[in-house]
Design a protein that fits this description.
The protein is α+β, with helices and mostly antiparallel strands. It has a domain of 189 residues. It has 7 helices and 7 strands, in the order αααβββββββαααα. A 6-stranded antiparallel β-barrel has the order 1-3-4-5-6-7. α2 runs antiparallel to α5 and α5 packs across α6. The chain is elongated, with a radius of gyration of 64 Å.
Length: 529
């Protein structure tokens, strides 16, 4: 019964705990999805406010609490930067030569971390900004680990919804890892196919189906279940806290949207004001033209009035009798003229004021144009001057270099010829000395060899003479015939006598050949002498 009790505890309690954990995680995932949909995370005009809301909900006040480092994206975990304002999609390339880039490829930049998605597994690189502007328009970065340099295009690429999902997946994985704080033996090391990070930072345990476990195992499983229950409770509390934070953030978002609406209304009002001011300016221009026309007409009338006055003055002498009658008319005309003069003066002042404004505007525009033209001309003159100075410097340097080269070549040629002549004289002296020494040694060796050859020849000749004398003597002795009668007692047959004669003839022939050889050898020795 004890075994059955243990088996019952193993089959029900841990499975229930695991199911509760999985349901809590699924519930948390659903809440996150709901938050993302309600906040319109990927609505482009409200990205900034959405980022603030998400970071307020999910980012702790300081850094991660877990001291363990996750196996995936550890540099990003250690940097603790997940805001969309620091997340960019850029194009980088290794610097193959000074300020010369190779092939650019798209990567993600999060703070000071570059995440390369073109490799498997994905590579994190911590970078440093060099603040060097020599490679403009590209930006120069260095790898903080090995000081390798690479270039970045200045304009970032547009982030899509999938790109923003990458940052959310990495943050969700790191937050889950910080919450579970799994050890090295418990952390999940595999990534499902098609995913960027593991679905859970904690490795799932296999179910225990061994019925032979003792009660201590049940107690341990009970402790694990209690721990899981506490974690689930903490997760629920965190979810409630997140819900409250979400409500507060939603209110802030509504207020921010209202402020945006106010800003948009103010922008529209400002646009309408600008348009009305433009219309007012156009009306003022038309008014200036109208006033100018009116002034011309008034001046014409004034001239006509003056001519009339002059004619009337000329006729004044003729109309003295009519002066009393015409005084009232003259006074009225003078009053009218004074009023017109005042009107003309005011109009002239206004025209002068408008003309001054126009002249100031034209002067400002002409001054800007003249300044730009003057700057351009100065720049062109400066470039021409620098180019001429550069060409003059290059010509002078080339002439000086050529002159120095000619002088150096002449000096080296002269020194080389002198060295050659000296070396030739030294070699000639050495050769003459060696030749005299060799000739002297040759004469010595020749005399010595001649004396040795003379002695050896004399010895050989003496020896050959002795041999020759002996052979001649032997020959003479062999060819002498005995006077006394031949002893034929021992020769019983004529064939024996014939054989003996043939043998004597052969010996005579051999001695004759030896004599000829000795004579030829003596002749050769005499010829060599």
């Amino acid at each position: 019964m004890h075994k059955n009790y243990n088996k019952k505890q193993q089959n029900t309690k841990p499975h229930h705990t695991i199911n509760v954990i999985e349901s809590a995680i699924e519930k948390q995932s659903n809440i996150l999805s709901t938050l993302a949909e309600k906040l319109s995370l990927f609505d482009v005009p409200k990205v900034t406010l959405t980022v603030v809301a998400i970071m307020t909900l999910f980012t702790p006040c300081l850094a991660w609490e877990c001291e363990q480092i996750p196996p995936f994206y550890p540099l990003t975990y250690d940097q603790f930067e997940y805001t969309f304002s620091a997340f960019h999609k850029i194009e980088i390339s290794e610097m193959i030569d000074i300020c010369i880039a190779g092939e650019f490829r798209p990567v993600y930049k999060l703070g000071n971390i570059i995440i390369d998605m073109t490799t498997t597994p994905h590579i994190e690189t911590k970078i440093n900004d060099t603040n060097i502007d020599d490679c403009k328009p590209n930006i120069l970065y260095t790898n903080s680990s090995n000081n390798d340099m690479f270039l970045r295009k200045p304009d970032p690429l547009t982030l899509t919804k999938d790109d923003q999902n990458i940052l959310l997946e990495i943050y969700s994985y790191h937050r889950n890892f910080n919450y579970t704080c799994s050890s090295v033996m418990e952390v999940e090391m595999t990534i499902p196919e098609g995913k960027l990070v593991p679905t859970s930072s904690h490795r799932k345990r296999k179910r225990i189906n061994n019925p032979d476990k003792t009660g201590d195992d049940c107690d341990e499983l009970q402790k694990l279940a209690d721990t899981a229950g506490e974690r689930i409770k903490a997760t629920n509390d965190a979810l409630l806290l997140h819900q409250e934070m979400f409500d507060a953030t939603k209110k802030e978002l509504e207020m921010a949207n209202q402020q945006i609406s106010v800003f948009e209304d103010e922008t529209k009002t400002a646009k309408r004001t600008i348009e009305s001011q433009k219309n007012t300016i156009e009306q003022n221009k038309q008014t200036i033209v109208t006033i100018t026309d009116q002034l011309a007409k008034v001046e014409t009338s004034f001239n006509q009035a003056r001519r009339t006055i002059e004619s009337q003055k000329d006729e004044l002498t003729d109309y003295k009798n009519k002066l009393i009658i015409k005084n009232d008319e003259v006074n009225s005309l003078e009053t009218t003229i004074r009023l017109r003069d005042a009107t003309i003066s005011s109009l002239k002042n206004e025209i002068q004021h408008y003309n001054e404004n126009l002249r100031n505007t034209q002067t400002t525009a002409e001054g800007a144009q003249n300044a730009a033209l003057q700057a351009e001309q100065n720049h062109a003159r400066q470039i021409s001057k620098l180019r001429k100075e550069h060409e003059t410097t290059i010509t002078e340097l080339e002439r000086q270099h050529k002159l120095n080269m000619d002088n150096k070549i002449s000096e080296l040629t002269k020194l080389h010829n002198e060295n050659i002549q000296n070396a030739i004289q030294i070699e000639i002296a050495k050769c003459e000395s060696q030749r005299r020494h060799d000739a002297k040694q040759w004469n010595t060796e020749t005399e010595k060899f001649k004396s040795e050859c003379q002695l050896q020849r004399d010895a050989e000749i003496d020896n050959m003479k002795k041999i020759f004398d002996e052979q001649i003597k032997s020959l003479m002795n062999s060819v002498q015939f005995k006077v006394e009668a031949m002893e034929t007692d021992d020769i019983k047959d004529g064939n024996q006598l014939l054989a003996k004669l043939k043998n004597s003839q052969k010996k005579s022939y051999s001695l004759n050949n030896d004599l000829k050889y000795v004579l030829r050898l003596n002749l050769q020795i005499l010829r060599h002498q």
